From TrEMBL:
Membrane topology (UniProt): Multi-pass membrane protein
Domain THH1/TOM1/TOM3 stretches: 23-291
Highest taxon, organism lineage: Eukaryota
Keyword Transcription: no
Assigned keywords, A-Z: Membrane, Transmembrane, Transmembrane helix, Vacuole
InterPro entries (UniProt xref): THH1/TOM1/TOM3, THH1/TOM1/TOM3_dom
Subcellular location(s) per record: Vacuole membrane
UniProt cross-references to PANTHER family, sorted A to Z: TOBAMOVIRUS MULTIPLICATION PROTEIN 1-LIKE, TOBAMOVIRUS MULTIPLICATION PROTEIN 1-LIKE ISOFORM X1
Name of the protein in question: THH1/TOM1/TOM3 domain-containing protein
Transmembrane segments: 37-62, 74-93, 113-132, 144-166, 178-200, 221-242, 254-276
Species name: Hibiscus sabdariffa
Pfam families: THH1_TOM1-3_dom
Family: Belongs to the plant tobamovirus multiplication TOM1 protein family.
Length: 292
C-alpha cells in the first residue's frame, strides 16, 4: 500500500492503472467482433488495390493494344493477382488461421508474399535494364538472372513447405520465416542499388529536360517506399520467428496483422500504383520494354 498526499493506493489499484494503456490491445485481440472487422477491412483494402491494378491494366491495354505483355502490363497483372489472393485469404480468415495443416496454412499466407516479392523486383529489373543501357553495359543476362533467382526462391520455399508437412517442427517454421526475411532484405538492397543508381544518373541531366523531373520523382519515391516496406518485412519476420507475441500467423493478433500488412503491402502498393499511374504514350518509348 502506498500513501500519496492523503490518497491511499493499494497494489491492486496500482497494477490496474499501470496496465490500462495496454488493456485495449488485449481486449481487441480477444474480441471476435474486432477480429471480424479488422480482417474484413484488410480483405476489402486488398480487393480495392487489386481492382485499381486491374483497371490500370485495362487502360494500358486500350492505349497500346498493338503490343504484347510489356513489363508495365505484367507489373499491374501481378499486382492484381497478389492483392486478389490476399483479399481472399483475409476474407476467409477463420478457415485459413484455423486450418489443421500447418504447411497448407503457410502456403496460403506465404505464397502471396513471394508473389509480392516477384512483382516489385520486376521494377528493379526494369530499372537495371535502363541503367545498363544508358551506361552501354550488357543487358542480356539481367532478365535470365531475374528468372533464375525467382525460380530458386520458389523452389527453396516449396522445399521448406514440404519439410514442415513431413516433420511438423517449429524449427522448420522458424527457418521458413527467416528465409522470407532474408529475401526481403535483398529486395530492399536491390532497390537501393539500382533505384539509387538510376536516381543519381537522372540527376545529372538538366532538370529542365523533358520528363526528367517526373522520372526523378517516380524513381526516388518508389525506391524509398519499396526499400522501407521490404526492410519492415525483414525486421518483423525476424522477430516473429523467435517471439510468439509477434507471430502474424495466428487468429488472435488482428492489430499486429493490420499494422503489418498495411505498412508492408497495402499502402506501398497503393502509393506505387498512384505514382506510376501515367499511361504510356501511344508510340512505344525506348524505356517501354516487352517481356520476352
Amino acid at each position: 500500500m502506498v500513501r500519496v498526499k492523503g490518497f491511499v493506493l493499494t497494489e491492486e489499484i496500482l497494477l490496474k492503472g499501470g496496465g490500462m494503456m495496454f488493456d485495449w490491445w488485449d481486449e481487441i485481440d480477444e474480441s471476435e467482433e474486432w477480429q471480424r472487422f479488422i480482417f474484413y477491412f484488410l480483405s476489402a483494402s486488398y480487393a480495392l488495390v487489386s481492382l485499381v491494378a486491374l483497371v490500370q491494366l485495362c487502360r494500358i491495354q486500350l492505349r497500346v493494344p498493338e503490343y504484347g505483355w510489356t513489363t508495365q502490363k505484367v507489373f499491374h497483372l501481378m499486382n492484381f493477382i497478389v492483392n486478389g489472393l490476399r483479399a481472399a485469404v483475409f476474407g476467409f480468415y477463420k478457415s485459413v488461421f484455423l486450418i489443421k495443416s500447418k504447411a497448407l496454412e503457410m502456403v496460403l499466407l506465404d505464397l502471396p508474399g513471394l508473389l509480392f516479392f516477384s512483382t516489385y523486383t520486376l521494377l528493379v529489373l526494369f530499372w537495371a535494364e535502363i541503367y545498363h543501357q544508358a551506361r552501354s553495359l550488357p543487358v542480356s543476362k539481367l532478365r535470365p538472372a531475374y528468372y533464375c533467382i525467382n525460380g530458386l526462391i520458389y523452389f527453396a520455399q516449396a522445399c521448406l513447405w514440404i519439410s514442415v508437412r513431413l516433420s511438423d517442427s517449429n524449427i522448420t517454421v522458424e527457418i521458413s520465416k527467416l528465409f522470407v526475411s532474408v529475401i526481403s532484405f535483398f529486395a530492399a538492397l536491390g532497390f537501393m542499388i539500382y533505384g539509387g543508381s538510376l536516381f543519381f544518373m537522372l540527376r545529372r541531366f538538366p532538370i529542365e529536360s523533358k520528363g526528367c523531373q517526373r522520372k526523378l520523382f517516380e524513381v526516388g519515391f518508389v525506391t524509398g517506399i519499396c526499400c522501407t516496406c521490404f526492410l519492415i518485412r525483414c525486421i518483423v519476420l525476424t522477430f516473429s520467428a523467435f517471439d510468439t507475441k509477434a507471430d502474424l500467423d495466428v487468429l488472435d493478433h488482428p492489430i499486429l496483422n493490420l499494422i503489418y500488412y498495411m505498412l508492408v503491402e497495402i499502402l506501398p502498393s497503393a502509393l506505387v500504383l498512384f505514382i506510376l499511374r501515367k499511361l504510356p504514350p501511344k508510340r512505344i518509348s525506348v524505356q517501354y520494354h516487352q517481356v520476352r
